Fold this sequence. Notes:
Elements: H1 2-13, H2 17-32, H3 34-46
Amino acid sequence: MIEKMAKHLVRNHGHSDLFAFAMLIKLLVVIQGDVGSFFVGSSIEIL
């Protein structure tokens, strides 16, 4: 479903794959909420 939304955005706005990828991550964070934010924060700390 999220992939479909990303493709829909690319088709409508003509942006690059990078933009679609960024939107996809943004959607994931919004959907997962605190869990997504925690995961992203943990990943950054590990790196």
